[in-house]
Amino acid sequence: MKEGWEYKKLGEVATYINGFPFKPSDWGTDGLPIIRIQNLTGTQQLFNKCSRNDIPEKYIVRNGDVLISWSATLGVFEWKLDDAFLNQHIFKVVFDKVEINKRYFEYAILISINIMSQQTNGATMKHIRKGDFDNIEIPVPPLYEQQRIVNYLDSAFAKIDAMNANAEKALNEAKALFQASLKEMLEPKEGWEEKKLKEICETITDFVAAGSFASLRENVVYKSEKDYAQLVRTTDLKSGFSKGSYVYVNEHAFEYLYRVNLDKECIILPNVGVNCGEVYYVTPSLLPYNNNVLGPNAVLVRSNKYNNHFLSYLFLGKDFQKKLSDITSHMAQPKFNKTGLKEIVISVPLLSEQQRIVATLDSLKSKVDRLQSNFEKISQECDALKQAILRQVFE
Q1: Which residues form the domain of 257?
Q2: Run of H or E residues at 318
Q3: Which residues of 85-95 are buried (b: 16+ CB within 10 A; e: fewer)?
Q4: pLDDT at 115 over 70
Q5: Is residue 355 part of a domain?
Q6: How far is CA 41 from CA 68, 102, 162, 168, in A?
Q7: Mode of pairing for the β-strands spanning 345-348 and 193-196
Q8: Residue-level pLDDT at 121
Q9: Rounded to 10 degrees, what is the CA torsion of 126, 130, 132, 135?
Q10: Residue 187: pLDDT above 70?
Q11: Which residues, in sequence order, are CB contacts of 142 under 8 Å at separation 6+?
């Protein structure tokens, strides 16, 4: 312990008010916004409001209040918007027990929050118990020392954030260039032909084309341990096969699902749920397993005459995405079917032009991918550097 410093438990430093347990029936379009965990990060858009006039004053959050989320998204946040109600699973910090610099407090608990975040278990949600939180200890030096530390950390973190922001800016500029090029190069031009997708792609099929649901249950058994083939799901494609929890099937199931064998290049279009409308260009070399079949909730599209990679780029374009949206049901969850997909009309150039477009877009996408990887690396390094600085100051 440094001279003049003392350690206090968080329960001795401030009062922590858990948010009000709002119910969906309390949500409306008028009144104060309700801060939920998802509103603490990102754009801080407020999705629901509450017009009730019986919510106690203590649940109102004002600009400048310090909030701590203790479930799902663990972290410390300073509220920078107008007055709002606080939902449960978030603490509002009231500094009513000891004299402490609010900004210093935010810095002082970051190490403990991060450690507890790594230690919490659960596949779906991280969680800090109130008792564990109250017993976290932080150093509480004199106020002048707190301010000196805040000035130092503000300056150091600002430089780190600037480095991260520069990497993000370069990535966003590359993405914007790619999108502009995608739009310009896919705009139909003289000599392009209009055709229905079923006239271009000989294969438009999916998992359920193998048979009835009863037949699928009988012939396709999911396995968590490696077997003859991997069942490729949208979640695997989305994560780039980085999650490590995969599904496998035996040889019989693989043969039964021959229609969605991923032994040739193809395009996979998720057609159910939140990933509906995403586009994945897949080749056998991109897949980590020897034998692969497509799982449910996605459509496999393949052409023998046209450039599949070109088609995957075309599917990313706004024109195709608009047509895809037009055939998508947005009721309980987004969903489109093969029948509607086959009837979508697209414009395609000669094969030589398709290849030229692919070469150009591949080059731009390669730059985006490099900058994406660089940004992720820098972000990780920035986070690690911040943690190292915090440990240097507080440990």
Answers
A1: 193-348
A2: helix 318-326
A3: bbbebbbbbee
A4: no
A5: no
A6: 12, 20, 19, 17
A7: antiparallel
A8: 47
A9: 140
A10: yes
A11: 4
